[in-house]
Amino acid sequence: MIELIASDMDGTLLNNDMKISTENAAAVKLAQKQGVHFLVATGRSHTEAQPVLSEVGIKCPMITVNGAQAFDKEGQELFTFALDKNQTKQIIETLTKAELYFEIATTHGVYSIGEKERKENAVQLLLNHYDNYTEESARAFAPEHLEQLPVNFIANYNDLLDNTNIKILKFIVFSYNNPGQFIQAQEEISNQRDISVTSSFVGNFEVNHIDAQKGKAVTRYAQSLNIPLEKIMTLGDNLNDLSMLAITPHSFAMANAATKTKEIAQYETDTNVDHGVAKAILKMCK
């Protein structure tokens, strides 16, 4: 019997409107009612993930920022894996030199140095990853999309390094028109020690501490409950989900998942739009 379900959010639990469907919410609550532990494992920060869950009345623990942090269902921090600030400085220099747009997730929220660039990046993200958007509709929806992902604007990223109260959790890097510089920067950063580089979608890579991985975080949380790996169910759609899909025989890739994700997962469920999470949960928690 499944005792723990860990689900990704964007592209998995959430539909293309960045919402949790009634069907998915009902399946999660049914599993919880049956005594199954449910947690989300997301690239989002706690402040980005919480409102979406609260909107449909789901209260659960969270693994956030790709595994850099975890919180219990009351929002109390369980653990944090932050990047070394000397490494952070090197990564900032590499990405700035490559002229790539990036954001930095910290223990005090997400930071950006370019409001105009962030808006344009949101438009390109919608156009490149969702078939139902034209350029006009993407530009119309982009502000609403960004409202769901709060950010702090800052003049210089190096100011974060001088603040001893702030821990650096993740770099989120984007590029839709500079593939050469994008790949070169990704390779250069990947060669640094104690670094994990993953991706949430094409045109993106994300940089975390080596121990900030969803698979390690789900395993750590399961161990705290004495739940063996063979009683864990995981669901995801992209490359930053691979580590948690690989730890259990009960792993599900979404029908909309990346090809490599489908190769790693043991099973495939329906798309995020067609309530694939609900269908997988109901299959495993009969």
CATH class of the largest domain: Alpha Beta
What is the H/E string?
Answer: EHHEHEEEHEEHHEHEHEEHEHEHEH
- Rg over CA atoms, rounded to whole Å, is 18 Å
Arithmetic mean of pLDDT: 92
**What structural class should be given to the helix and strand makeup?**
alpha/beta
What is the count of DSSP helices, taking H or I runs of 4+ residues? 12
Query: Given the C-alpha coordinates, what overall shape results?
Result: globular
Helix content: 25-40%
Overall number of domains: 2
Low-confidence runs of at least 5 consecutive residues: none
Physical arrangement of strands within the biggest beta sheet = 5-4-3-2-1-12-13-14
Sketch the major β-sheet: 8 strands, mixed
Strand content: 15-25%
**Euclidean distance between termini CA atoms:** 9 Å
InterPro entries: Cof, HAD-like_sf, HAD-SF_hydro_IIB, HAD_sf
Pfam families: Hydrolase_3 (PF08282)
Protein name: HAD family phosphatase
GO cellular component, one term: cytosol
Keywords:
single chain, Hypothetical Protein, Haloacid Dehalogenase-like Hydrolase, Chain: A, domain 2, Rossmann fold, alpha/beta, six-stranded mixed beta sheet, HAD-SF_hydro_IIB, globular, eight-stranded mixed beta sheet, phosphatase activity, 286 residues, 40% helix, 14 strands
